[in-house]
Amino acid sequence: MKVFGICGYSGSGKTTLLEAMIALLTARGLKVSLIKHAHHGFDIDKPGKDSWRHREAGAGEIALITDKRWVLMHEARNEEPPQLVDILERLSPCDLVLLEGFKRAVHPKIEVHRPSLGKPPVWPEDCDIVAVASDQAIDCALPRLDLNDPEQVADFVLKHVGLK
Questions:
Q1: How far apart are alpha carbons 101 and 109 in whole angstroms?
Q2: How many domains does one find in the chain?
Q3: What is the bridge-based pairing of β-strands 109-113 and 129-134?
């Protein structure tokens, strides 16, 4: 599986870009998976539901299975979160795994940078960033991609990972 990341500050447009890219890539016949890193807690379960009650009772893993989708929830009670490589090993085979976030992990990535957010660019400090997608012209030694052109970004990613 090829792995490529999209990183940037909150509000920069990572999710919107990835959503468009995934639609474009799957329309081209590629099988795409995504792993998102969240810095805050989240819960896909609902209080009172059977799975929530089982988790609250102490179950370490709970699988929910329907005819349309399935999910495996793992409770990290007194454990460190898994490393990215551990999650990659659990994924079903696909052509491309896109990562959202994981800006400190070692893998090729594009930084989504919006100067209007007033945040400094990450690319000068991260040698794994291979291009910058921005909505404005910026002074950058790396290839600059148009943030508003997801097809251009998708083509860059495919070429970089050797799928085009």
A1: 10
A2: 1
A3: parallel
What is the pTM assigned to this prediction? Answer: 0.90
Residue 21 amino acid letter: M
- Whether 157 is covered by a domain: the verdict is yes
CB 37 within 8 A of CB 14: no
Say if CB 49 and CB 29 are below 8 A apart: no
Pairing status of strand 70-74 against strand 61-65 = antiparallel
Containing structural domain, residue 111: 2-41+82-161
- For residue 60, being part of any structural domain is answered with no
- Over residues 47-60, the pLDDT tens digits come to 888 888 998 888 88
Whether residue 73 is contained in a domain is answered as: no
Chain centroid to CA 13: how far?
12
12 burial (CB, 10 Å; 0-12 / 13-18 / 19+) is buried
Whether the Cβ atoms of residue 62 and residue 43 lie closer than 8 Å to each other = no
Tokens standing for residue 6? 């999209």
Distant-in-sequence, close-in-space partners of 126: CB < 8 Å, separation ≥ 6: 103, 104, 109, 111
Task: CATH number of the domain at 6, please.
Answer: 3.40.50.300
Question: Is 132 among the domain residues?
Answer: yes
